Structures are given as C-alpha cells and as structure tokens.
Amino acid sequence: FIWTGPLRAVAVLLLVGLTWLLANSLFGGESGSSVRYFFSGKIHGEPHPRRYKCGLTAPCPPKHLAFRLVSGAANVIGPKICLEDKMLVSSVKNNVGRGLNIALVNDVADLLKFLRPLHEGTLVFVASFDDAATKMNDEARRLFEELGSTAVKELAFRDSWVFVGAKGIENKSPFEQRMKNSKSSNKYEGWPESLEMDGCIPLRPPLEG
Q1: In a domain, 15, yes or no
Q2: Residue 26 has pLDDT above 50, yes or no
Q3: If you ran DSSP here, which 8-state letter would residue 73 be given?
Q4: pLDDT tens digit string along 63-108?
Q5: Total count of domains within the chain
Q6: Domain that holds residue 171
Q7: What burial letters (b/e) apply to 140-157, b meaning 16+ CB within 10 Å?
C-alpha cells in the first residue's frame, strides 16, 4: 500500500497529535485529566442513576413489594408485569395474550374460576393488551370492583388499563390507571397510548414474611 503525499502529511499530523495527548495524559498538564477521562469513558460526567427492583427510581421501604405494570401498546407490543424484580408477564417470556393479563400468587387459566375463590390478602396484578373490555361480563367487573377497582365499571373497547388490587381490600386501590380509547387523543391508530405504573405495596398477612 502506498500513501500519496497529502495522506502522508495527515498521518504525520495525527501521529504527532496523539503523541502529545498521550504525553499530557502520562506526565500531567492542563489537558491530562481530560485525556484520561476520554480514554476511560468518563468524559460524559454524571454516573448512571442506580437501578432498584423493577426499575424503580427509589427503593421500597421494609415490608413492601416493588412492582411495575406496563399495558400493551396497541395490538403489537405486549404488556409487562414485574414484581420484586421478577418479570412475571412479558412478550419475552411468551406468556402474554390479548385481553387481560393477570398475575397472581399461583398460575390460573380462567378469569371467573380463579377470581371467585381468591384467599384473603391475595394481590392481583392486571395489565391490558389490545382489548380487555369486550368479553368482560358484569360478574367479572363486579369481582374486580371487590378487589378495589374504580375504573373497571367504565372500561370500554380498547381502553388501556393497569391495576393492582387485593382480596379483602377495605378501601379502593390507589394503584390503578385507565386511558380511554378516543379518536381525538389516541397515540396509535385505533388505540390509546400504553400505560406504565410502578410503586411499593405494603405487605399484609398472609404475604408478610
């Protein structure tokens, strides 16, 4: 390979420049610290924020469960349910489906069959995907209301919905979001935007311990 004259000149300049930078880095000088940062990958300054369970920005207090719910995006991207840094439901795990995606203490198949006999204190995590409302009958909505939902009564075709409830809850759940399907505000064609919710759930018997 033969360099032409201009290319050789450029190469010499680059070699001289790199020699000067390395000399400053090794022996000090005003630019030494900057050069060391450059080669160490720290030139951008601020460190990455610490990651807590399920991607929370702060740790949960003792005797609390960290969670994150993400509803599906349109009918393309599946929902996610994370509890205590364990991904329970996701497209990667290949266990999502259109409608309601629900995570309980034990895996179950049929909505009404497992919502009716839930034990006191059981936590229920719900994330919608595509359309969760069309096939939901009055009994299913009532059971979700008993778990603390206030939005399920009005849940409609292709609404986005994330919810955490509990069997035997005394008040309405503070962990619930609903995004209405509306042509004027939909992010996707025919679907509202995906919802994301996270937080810390206080433990109670029999989950405590």
Answers
A1: no
A2: no
A3: B
A4: 999 999 999 877 778 899 999 999 988 988 888 888 788 876 333 3
A5: 1
A6: 53-202
A7: bbebbeebbbebbeebee
